[in-house]
Each structure stands twice: as C-alpha cells, then as structure tokens.
Amino acid sequence: MSTAVGIPSPATKLTAHRRHLRRRRRRLRCSADAAAAAAAEEEESEGESAEGEGTIVGAAAATTRPAYSLISAANVQKALRGLAITDVDHYGRLGISKGTSYDQVNVAFKKKQEELMNKELDEEEAKKELELLKESYNILSSEEERRLYDWSLARSERPERYVWPFEVDITQTPTQPPPPKEPEDVEPTRLVGYFFLAWLILSFALSVTLNR
Q1: How high is the pLDDT of residue 2?
Q2: What is the Cα–Cα distance from 133 to 158, expressed in whole angstroms?
Q3: Hey, where are the domains in the chain?
Q4: Among 46, 52, 56, 136, which Cα is nearest to 98's?
Q5: Is the pLDDT of residue 201 over 80?
Q6: 22-47 mean pLDDT
C-alpha cells in the first residue's frame, strides 16, 4: 500500500511513538533514581546531624552540674541504702539548723561572709574559707541539691526507717489536714484483764476452800 510523499506511514508513526515512550520511561526512571539518592543522602545527613546534636546535648548535660553538686546516680543509690553522701555539715558550716528557710540561708551566708572579712587571715586561706561557704550556700539554697542532701541526712540518721524525699523537703507544704488518729482498740486488753481478775478470784476461793 503506497502512501503520499512526505506523509509518514502508520508503521512509522507507531515506531516513533514507541521510541518516545521508551525515552520517557528512561527519563522517569532516572528521575526516580535521582530522587531516591537525594532522599537517602538527606536522611543520612539528618542522622549525622541528630547524632551530632545528641553528642552536644549529652556533653552539655554532663558539664551542666557544677563541681560542688551532690546530684548523681551514685549519691541517690547511697541515700537509698541509708548511707551518707557527704561528710560535710553544710548546716553547721553556715551556723543554721535543718528546716531553716531559704531566706535565712541567704542571711546566714552574708553573715558568715562578714565574719570572714573581719578575720585576720592571709589571702589564700580567706579564699579557701570563702569557697567552702559558697559551697554550703549553693547546696542549701538550691531546691534540688537541698532535697537530696536532707534526704540523705534523714536516711543516714535512721537507716531502719525509710522516708521519701518529699517528706524532708521544706518546700513541700501540706495542702490537706493530717488524717485523724485511729481510736485505740482497748477491747483485747480489757478482756485479758477480766480473765486475770477472774483467775485470781477463783484461785483465792479455791485456796480458802482447800485450807478449811
């Protein structure tokens, strides 16, 4: 079957269409591969970024606590076992007693500072004394540090009796009145008393009867 000159035959059109479809599929496949590669690279970079951020956060958390801090997993374990977490008497160092308010801790620290300034100490010794006062002040003026310190004192003083940290936390004010005391059950004691009284009377009666 002849075709007009310059007009492609149906077979030629079909072949050209198939080539166009193959080229289009190839371009789509390349685009998909490129997109997948880009997504993989992005996920890898995000993972590295998250890992780097985690390392930085972990390092920051490790260096957040100052040198004087008592807060650590080891000290919590000691307090749980009823062991003292430190030998330092921070209350005695500032000249105050347990249960002193935070405002009074600040007043006591300033007072100790003035007393230290009035002492005739050399610069190095005065600096050491001031550092010790600052350590005790930082412990007792921080809610977290003082809660752990007071809990450790309560546990080490009476290891046979367990107390919770909130029980020794002066910042935790009770919101409800204490529960009423349960009435003492005196009935068993009364019954035992009656039994002994009856036994004494019976013994006395038997002794009188037998002695006649």
Answers
A1: 45
A2: 27
A3: 73-173
A4: 136
A5: yes
A6: 57
Better-scored residue on pLDDT, 189 or 21: 189
Is the pLDDT at 133 greater than 90? The verdict is: yes
Q: How far is the C-alpha of 166 from the C-alpha of 42, rounded, in Å?
A: 48
What local confidence, expressed as pLDDT, does residue 198 receive? 86
Residue pair 171/143 in contact (Cβ under 8 Å)? The answer is: yes
What span, in angstroms and rounded, lies between the C-alpha atoms of 34 and 174?
65
Q: How many CB atoms lie within 10 A of CB 6?
A: 5
Please name the fold of domain 73-173: Helix Hairpins (1.10.287)
Q: Residue 62: which of 22, 93, 54, 202 has the closest Cα?
A: 54
- Give the whole-angstrom CA distance, residue 42 versus residue 82: 52
Q: How many residues does the chain have?
A: 212
- 0.85 exceeded by pTM: no
Residue 90 has, within 13 A of its CA and on its CB side, a CA count of 28
Token pair belonging to 40? 């993989």
Question: CA of 130: how far to CAs of 124, 135, 136, 139, in Å?
Answer: 10, 9, 10, 14
Q: Residue 22: which region, alpha, beta or left (left: phi > 0; alpha: psi -120 to 50)?
A: alpha
Radius of gyration of the chain measured on its C-alpha atoms: 42
Quote the CA–CA distance of 150 and 171 in Å, as a whole number.
12
